[in-house]
Amino acid sequence: xxxxxFGLLFPGIPALxxxxxxxxxxSSPHTPQGAASKNVQAIVVNSGPQNNYANGVFTTVTICAPxxxxxxNISGVLVDTGSFGxxxxxxxxxxxxxxLPQQKDGNGNPIVECAQFVSSVVWGAVKSADVGLAGEKxxxxxxxxIDPSVAPIPSACKAIGPAEEDLASLGANGILGIGFFVSDxxxxxxxxxxxxxxxxxxxxxxxxxxxxxxxxxxVQNPAALFSQDNNGVxxxxxxxxxxxxxLSGSLIFGIGTQSNNALGAAQVxxxxxxxxxxxxxxxxxxxxxxxxxxxxxxxxxxGAVGMxxxxxxxSGFYCPSSPMNLSxxxxxxxxxxxxxxxxxxxNANTLFSSPADAVFPTLGGxxxxxxxxxxxxxxxxxxxxxxxxxxxxxxYWAY
Amino acid sequence: MLKLxxxxxxxxxxxxxxxxxxxxxxxxxxxxxxxxxxxxxxxxHLKASVRVTARQYYSIHEMHTASETVIRQxxxxxxxxxxxxxxxxxxxxxxxxxxxxxxxxxxxxQTARRGRGVHLETGDLVxxxxxxxxxxxxxxxxxxxxxxxxxTDELR
Lengths: 399, 156
What we know:
The complex is a heterodimer of chains A (399) and B (156).
Chain A: H1 13-21, E1 40-46, E2 56-64, E3 71-80, E4 84-89, H2 90-93, E5 111-116, E6 121-133, E7 136-146, H3 155-158, H4 167-170, E8 174-178, E9 200-204, E10 207-210, E11 232-237, E12 247-253, E13 268-269, E14 277-281, E15 284-290, E16 297-300, H5 302-305, E17 324-331, E18 338-345, H6 348-352, E19 364-365, E20 367-373, H7 375-378, E21 381-386, E22 396-398
Parallel strand pairs in A: 3-8, 4-7, 15-20, 16-19
Antiparallel strand pairs in A: 1-2, 1-12, 2-3, 2-6, 4-8, 5-6, 5-9, 6-7, 9-10, 11-12, 11-21, 13-22, 14-15, 14-17, 16-20, 17-18, 21-22
Chain B: H1 2-10, H2 12-21, H3 41-46, E1 49-54, E2 59-64, E3 70-75, E4 81-88, H4 93-97, H5 101-108, E5 118-122, E6 125-132, E7 135-142
Antiparallel strand pairs in B: 1-2, 2-3, 3-4, 4-7, 5-6, 6-7
């Protein structure tokens, strides 16, 4: 995989600058190292560890063998409110991987997961680890170690889409899924049989069979398993007036648990069981969701919004001839608050023509019949993600 | 419930018409681009049942899998599957895209810059998908096979 438009950048330097000096036009306060609040984790939007990401928001996660000081800091982990649970590349873990206990079934066979994302899968072992973020720690969390060498990917997993199994294909060293559900698949995966969507496998040698996986043994959102500040998170990013090389912000743990995470005047938006709110646009209501792991506003189709798709290879993005100012209204899936969002979509090819930039507040693309409020939505907002009961009083978003 | 039953008894013709419209038809599911009458593998493989509804320019063969994924196949008057749409947990795209699955894989692995979901246009084939973990929405269609009078925005 090529490093794309960011190929001439010096990897990592924008992130370092931001962490040290608080650059990026940030209006959020930066606490000096050492005095940082226990529940504040630094995050940064930049081109990522592969130097090819647009609108990717990353952080550093500390992973330890359970109950030990055998730890590794993994940088370049995508902060993702659209998934649940922590996944890291085996290659990023290095020798620590061998010290993480493998989850096993009743026969002693390893549990391996086919984690299903929107257009891809990641395959690898379910292991147990202590997970540290800011001053918080979750003990013995089931995580996924992405590693195609653990066993051949079963055909049913391959039939879903391409496997992202290394830095080149993932564009990140891992994914920190901090959405409002705590287990990655939920009740559907708890029972074996035809209704099981096939996330979890038990592998004997190279032969893997789909299995039911109890909900609390599924890969878990570690932020729900901290000893405190564990009922939700706040993603805090400053506004961006235009494209920029990087933008730094904070991932704050807990909602209403400390002086820095009060819900305040934020409006609460509750999802349906599938995890979607309602978004109305030009008189029609669609399913919508708020997802820091999506790197643009992805909504509807070229025909429905009156903007052309970009030519290949960027046909996933819109290319209007001039910036389009749009508005849509979010509402809870059932009764509740509603509020209007104004946003602007600019020509992606024009945006990408500036090779130093990785922050694009006006990047958009198609997403048939749904509204994906991706990372640009987070710029200039505090987005609260409240975990499902009994971990928190969610599921909901608030902003 | 009682009222519904009585209504049904009085309007027996309506009831009959509905039951015919929603006829379970095991031989009406096929991969993208296939002849709809030639394959019944999908239903057996996905352990689902198919409901057929007629529209002006095509028919929709809708299937609910055991894991509650909804799959719709759009069949032209000539009997060809010209589009597929899905929502829920990720479906078996290899089965649904058939001969086009490898084309999809090759194109999907080249779209490095789009984080989450795909929008692919490889000549005749167009594939869109989006959503989040536990809930995926997508569609695929063949431009050359869309009956005249049909907007691609209907295909979802």
